[in-house]
Amino acid sequence: PYEYLDNNDIVGVDIDIANAIAKELGKELEVQNITFDGALLAVQQGKVDVALAGISVTDERKETMDFSIPYAQSKQVLVVKKDADIINGEEDIKADTKVGFQTGTTGMYYAEDTDCEAKGYTKYSQAALDLSNEKIDCIVMDELPAKEIVKANDSLVILEKELFTDEYAIAVKKGNQELLDKINPIIQKLIDDGKIDEYTLNHTKE
């Protein structure tokens, strides 16, 4: 729900937030549709002003980019094939467990730090297809996108117990405090006015 294509238009919670910020700043928003890890690299190199893509704040990322105040939280969960009975929880992930993730996400860091066979994908939908076809055993991903994946794939299910919780924020180039000072008050107002909850609800309707 944070960003997706709807009839070739890029929409989602993050796009709504970006539009609100651009409007408040009197700027024209230009959205670039690139891969997740490509977005992180683009903001580090100054090729884009901000990156919004359900980006989790981590100590590792803080070394190469700066972040706004958090605007959302997301649980990290495991998606498995229904009735496969291979993975029933984190404790079932072993050295020979095939764990899928989206490249550049905190799910990738989790998988790579875990004793398992880690496999990266450009998009969650690709991982979901492999999971459905039993080419991997589970996917580590954010809860909201996981709900969308499961909604579109009857053979998949989200395990009840979360792995950990992330905070999402807007990424800017390292040292760009001037931009953060402009966007942080706008984000706070969007939170206080319930706008971000409204955006999330609009993009997660059944």
Task: Give an overview of the whole structure.
The protein has 206 residues and is an alpha+beta fold. Helices cover 37% and strands 23% of the residues. β1 (4-6) and β2 (9-11) form a beta hairpin. α1 (13-25) packs across α7. The model has no long low-confidence stretch (mean pLDDT 93).
Q: What order do the SSEs take from the amino end to the carboxyl end, as H and E?
A: EEHHEHEEEHEHEHEEEHH
Structural class: alpha+beta
- Tell me the helix content: 25-40%
Kindly report the average pLDDT value. Answer: 93
Rg from alpha-carbon coordinates: 17 Å
List the uncertain runs. Answer: none
Task: Throw out a few tags for this protein.
three-stranded antiparallel beta sheet; 8 helices; 37% helix; alpha+beta; six-stranded mixed beta sheet; 206 residues
Layout of helices and strands, plus pairs?
Blueprint: E1 4-6, E2 9-11, H1 13-25, H2 36-44, E3 50-51, H3 59-62, E4 65-67, E5 72-81, E6 98-102, H4 106-112, E7 117-121, H5 124-132, E8 138-142, H6 143-152, E9 156-158, E10 164-168, E11 171-173, H7 177-192, H8 195-202
Parallel strand pairs: 6-7, 6-8
Antiparallel strand pairs: 1-2, 3-11, 4-11, 5-8, 5-9, 5-10
Quick structural summary:
With 206 residues, the protein is an alpha+beta fold.
